[in-house]
Every structure is written in C-alpha cells, then in structure tokens.
Amino acid sequence: MAKVVVAGKANCPYYAKAELLADYLQANLPNFRVHKITQHPDKWEQWLHDICEMNGWEHRCSPIIWRELLDRGGKGLLLGGLNDFLEYAQHYYNITSRMSSEEMLSIAEENLQEYIEVEKEEEEIKNLIKPLQIWITSASTPICYHLIPLLANGEVFGMTTEISIHLLDTDQSKEVLCGIVMEAEDMALPLLHSISEHTEIDEAFIQADVVIVLDDVLLNCEVQSLENYIREVSEICQVYAPLIEKNAKSEVRVISSGKTFVNLKALMIMTYGPSIKPKNVIAIATTWESATKAMLARKLNTNVAGVKNVIVWGNITGSNYIDLSHAKLYGYDCAIWGPADFSRPLLNMIYDSEWIYSELQSAQSSLSSQLCRYGGMLPAHAVATVLRYWYHGSPPEEIVSVGIHTEGQFCVPKGIVFSMPVRFQNGNWEVMTELKINEETQGALGCLAHELIQEKLIALKEIQEMQPYGGDKITS
C-alpha cells in the first residue's frame, strides 16, 4: 500500500494542484492513501525547516511531498515538489493533472479561508476546555513526585475534569523540575492537560484554582533557634500571600502541607493575604490520622481501613493530641458480628489500658520523627484525600481532622490555625461542633493553643522568644 503525504502553504496554488491530484489517485486506486498537511503562510518556513531537518531532506518550496514506507518502517521517502509528484503519478499510474492556473489560484484562496476557519474553530474549542490550575510550591520534594499521579487519576477532581499542574521552585531545582515534567508527560495521563515548571516567583500562581504549599524548613536547633525557623517560615509566606492575592482566582483554595510548621504556614498566608478567604485555607492533618490508624490496627491485628474517626487536635507538626474517644472499629473479628456498617467503640476493643496511656503516647512521640523520614507517599496521599473530600464531600458520619482558622470552637482561642474535627460537604467544610469532648481533651486544648499562639506572635515579631505554658498571660 502506498501512503503519500502532501504538505504545503494554505494559499499556495501548486499545493492546491498537488492535493487535488492526490485526492483523485486515492479515489480511483484501491491501495493508494493520502494524508494532507496544510500550514498557515506565516508558519510555513519554520515548519518546512523543522521537517527537513528531522528527516535529513533538502527542500525549499511549497508543496513538499513524500511517501511513507508503511511496509518497511523508517523515515519517509522524499518525492519532491509539484513537478516531481506529477512525474511520479505519470510514471507509476499513467495519471496526470490538467488543472489551469485560474483553477489553482481559486482553490488556493479557498484553502486559505478554510484553514483560517478551522484554526479559529479549534481555538474556540480549546477555550471551552478550562482545566483546573494547580500550583505546587517547593515542587522538587518527594511529596510532589508522588502527588502528581494522584491528582491526575480522576478520583480527586472528577473523571471529566482536566487539570494543569504548575511546579514552582528555585533555580537550583530547575533540572529536577524538568525531570518531573518529562516523566509526567511520558505517563500520558488522560486528565493531565499540561504540566510545566516555573522558577520565576513573579509568575507564580497565575489563575490558580488550587495552591498546595509544601515548603519546609529543615529543623536543626543546634544551628539556629526555633524562633529563627519560625521567622523564616513567615518570610516565605510574606512572598507567597501577596502573589496569591494578585495572580490567583478569587476563590482559590490553599492547602498547607509538609513536615514542619503546617499550621503556621496556613495562618501566615491568611495574615499576609487578607483578601484570601479563611474558609479557603486549610492545613493537612490526615498524615497523622493515617499513621495513628495504622498503629492502632497493628495493635488490634485488624484492617487499617476499618479504623475510623481518630481526631488530631492542635499543632499538626508540633504539639498535638490524638483523641480516640470517638474512634470506631468496623469489620473487627470478634465475638459480635454485624453488617458492613456495624461498628464498635475502638477503646472498648483495647483491653490493655496501660498501652493506651503509656505505649501509645510514647509511640506518638516517635511518630513525628518517622513522618519526617517518609519519602512522600503518605503525605501525598493525605493531600489528595483531603482535596477529594473538599470537592466531592467526605464519607457520611466520618470525622476528618483539618487545621482551620479558629473562631472560638471548642473554647480554642480565636485567630490561630488549629487542627480539629470537620466534615466536608457541598464544596465546603464545617467544624463538627456537635461532638462532645471529655475533660481530658478539653484540658489538653489550652496547652496546644498556647504553642500556636506563641508561634504566631514570634512570626509577627510581637515577641522574641517562646514562653512556657502558664508562664505568661497571652491568650490570643
């Protein structure tokens, strides 16, 4: 089978004559196929240069015609221009063209008008496709690497929603970003409309629908004080927040994640970006939730998916409190069985109370260092899970822990970002204020709030050093 490619300028009369001859051959010969490539006159020279360079050809005018060797593979066989194609058709098929110059010019004009109309229609179709714009900061981190396929698999934003991912980091990370972009493109994810790397901060967050802040500071208190690290985080957010205000969409959703100062990053973005809606800024606590559920499942020798409603209170990557008073256990292998929605209070299933009050607490203290050593799979899954809930709602009756801007819920002081139980529905979240909390939990919340207030005041340069709980009168 012969397949001939005819390419030329849309307004070229010689291209018009060549394409009509090719159409005639295709209509009258059973094993002849033609493929036509029409280029705008302004783009023709560059296109011709590129195609010739790629194939090692020498050709300088319109049209260019080649035969593709379908039965043998390899690069195409250059036939040449119009005169070469006429000789080819005459020699092999005893067919030629007798089109007049007037007809050639008329068809060339029609070709140009048709090309312009088709190009305009394609542009309009592209404009109808409005993918969600996702910006990820500190994108050279392992979390981002694991996050990209989760965002683009259709489960987070929906199976019909395309996304464009923008990776933001420093110039030093440009090579890493380019590698991530190439690998993501090679995956050919059907909902990934585009992915690009950015190192110019002024271009950050343009038309952003979602901003995922992954920036971390590597804590080493032997090098500098905790207070200096807090100020460093504040300075990063002083750069990001005004750019989010300026460049992102008005309803942009901001997610703070990472391994350090997750609550503080969310708070400082709201502080330095006052027009960003507080309801649209959250901090991810799901990493802690998942790790605690896994620890409990190992203790009970059950499936992690059956452990629900573990609550993380307070400073997600600092001092927090794991509350099991509302935790439930589904599908547990015990003397009492029920349907799939049958649950048991988790604390009733742990008969070793000593483990709850000693080993679990000591395990929690080591959990923070474990999370810092994770390669990024768990934090990436946590971000994707919360985004899915935000867009599609969390499971009914299920508690999700999220760092949110406080308004006095559970007697926590206003004006900090504090992790507490929420539910997601209809594209929003709401605090589950109907939950009853015991005295032990309520007593812990004051201490947890104190640490976050101290971080806030240091970040805003209102105090210089962290004060111990009970050693000052600061409450907000």
Primary descriptors:
476 residues, alpha/beta, nine-stranded mixed beta sheet, four-stranded mixed beta sheet, 13 helices, 19% strand
Describe the structure.
The protein is of the alpha/beta class and 476 residues long. 43% of the residues lie in helices and 19% in strands. The strands form 4 sheets. Strands 7-6-5-8-9-10-16-17-18 form a 9-stranded mixed beta sheet, with helices on both faces. A hairpin with an 8-residue loop joins strand 3 and strand 4. Helix 7 packs across helix 8. It is elongated and about 100 Å long. The mean pLDDT is 89.
Ordered list of secondary-structure elements with their pairings:
Elements: E1 2-9, H1 13-28, E2 32-39, H2 41-55, E3 64-68, E4 77-80, H3 82-93, H4 101-128, E5 132-137, H5 142-151, E6 163-168, H6 174-186, E7 192-198, E8 210-213, H7 226-247, E9 253-256, H8 262-272, E10 281-284, H9 286-300, E11 307-308, E12 311-314, E13 320-323, E14 328-330, E15 343-345, H10 346-349, H11 353-373, H12 377-392, E16 400-405, E17 417-425, E18 428-431, H13 439-459
Parallel strand pairs: 1-2, 5-6, 5-8, 6-7, 8-9, 9-10
Antiparallel strand pairs: 1-3, 3-4, 10-16, 11-14, 12-13, 14-15, 16-17, 17-18
Helix pairs in contact: 1-3, 1-4, 5-12, 7-8, 8-13, 9-11
